[in-house]
Amino acid sequence: MAPVNEKKREAGKLKKHCLTLDEKIKILDANKKKKMSCRDIAKTYKIGKTQASSLLREEEKLRKEYENFQGKGFKHVNRSSHQKFKPINEILYSWFKNCEASGIYVNGPLHIEKAKNIKE
């Protein structure tokens, strides 16, 4: 992992580091060899304590996900590529682009209402 400027991290100016699935598994493997607390993991790998805690709590799920992606040739996966509502999202996006092209303002509640209509 890339070195992190501690002064920027302390000042809160550093963006969150989104770990890839590979990085998460490497952290979990290292933790298996040398048991560390969440605080130690966070400090060692320059991530937040909450993120370290989540890694340990979701270890089984992450390992299963890693096995699934390994078989498919994926090397670096940040988030699950599965979208539960992919067809709805595609239709909704198409509708949104049409509204945008027509000059119609689409706000959050209207967007939600349209999504519910599409779902039905």
Describe the model:
This protein is mainly α and 120 residues long. Helix content is 65%, strand content 0%. It has helices at residues 6-11, 21-33, 38-45, 49-57, 59-71, 86-102, 108-119. The chain is elongated.
Ordered list of secondary-structure elements with their pairings:
Layout: H1 6-11, H2 21-33, H3 38-45, H4 49-57, H5 59-71, H6 86-102, H7 108-119
Helix pairs in contact: 2-5, 3-4, 6-7
Task: Report the total helices.
Answer: 7
Q: What does the largest sheet look like?
A: none
Oligomer: single chain
Using DSSP, what is the number of strands? 0
As a percent range, the share of helical residues equals 55-70%
Number of structural units classed as domains = 2
Shape label: elongated
β-strand percent reads under 5%
Structural class assignment? mainly alpha
Mean pLDDT, as a whole number? 79
Spans of 5+ residues with little confidence (pLDDT < 50)?
none
Reading the helices and strands in chain order gives HHHHHHH
- Specify Rg, calculated over alpha carbons: 20 Å
What is the CA-CA span between the terminal residues?
46 Å
